[in-house]
User: Which sequence fits this backbone?
């Protein structure tokens, strides 16, 4: 696995490298949808942005921890163990991103 810092970054509107923050992007998508559907006003949307970012970051924290574990695991297995390693990774990450109902 690659180090997150070494992943390519998208260009921003000015053509310079922009850092990506999945928590901010997720919060913004939710707030934009709520605004478009008339569930909240734009001023309320802006007020909730920090809460949404913090919630998304908290939700992603265990996934980030698992990625660290899986990076260490991957460095310890040989090429013949890749299938088992991939299944191991999926089994560890799935409960962090799906509800119990979705997993059953």
Assistant:
């Amino acid at each position: 696995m690659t180090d997150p810092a070494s992943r390519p970054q998208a260009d921003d509107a000015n053509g310079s490298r922009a850092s990506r923050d999945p928590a901010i992007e997720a919060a913004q998508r939710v707030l934009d949808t709520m605004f478009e559907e008339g569930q909240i006003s734009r001023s309320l949307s802006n007020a909730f942005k920090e809460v949404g970012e913090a919630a998304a970051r908290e939700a992603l924290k265990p996934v980030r921890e698992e990625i660290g574990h899986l990076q260490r695991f991957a460095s310890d297995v040989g090429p013949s163990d890749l299938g088992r390693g991939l299944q191991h990774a999926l089994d560890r990450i799935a409960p962090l991103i799906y509800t119990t109902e979705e997993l059953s």
